[in-house]
Amino acid sequence: MEKLSEVNGVVEPSKIQLQVNYETLADLFFYPQNEEYKNNIKNIHSYLSKDIPEAANAMQPFIDFIEVATIQEMQELFLRSLTYRLSLLWILVLCYLVKIINGVNY
To answer: Nearest to residue 58, comparing CAs of 88, 79, 28, 86?
Structure first.
């Protein structure tokens, strides 16, 4: 993964290679079951703030949300976003099937 840097107002990748701890980031994709979820997300944000500040900045609205959200609200958001992602997947599958049925080769 490359780190982004801004030069003369243009954001471009730098040559710095980042070591990303995917095991830590995996907690983002777990279903929120209790208050520990909030702590895990805050830990991820802290980790990103040190190593990948651009990602931490992009995550800030979610951090603001979990500061005030109840567990139920976080669960609802998780399920809505999962439903959205699954809907997009089905659209891609249907488009692929239509192309196969119509004989379009890749």
So the answer is: 28
Residue 45 to residue 86: CA distance in whole angstroms = 26
Whether this model's pTM surpasses 0.70: no
CA angle 65, 87, 89 (to 5 degrees): 110
Q: Look over the chain and give the mean of its residue pLDDT values, rounded to a whole number.
A: 79
DSSP string over the chain: -EEEEEETTEEEEEEEEP---HHHHGGGGS---STHHHHHHHHHHHHHHHH-HHHHHHHHHHHHHHHH--HHHHHHHHHHHHHHHHHHHHHHHHHHHHHHHTT---
Q: Which residue has the tokens 């801004």?
A: 6
Mean pLDDT of 37-62: 91
Which residue did the predictor score with more confidence, 48 or 103?
48
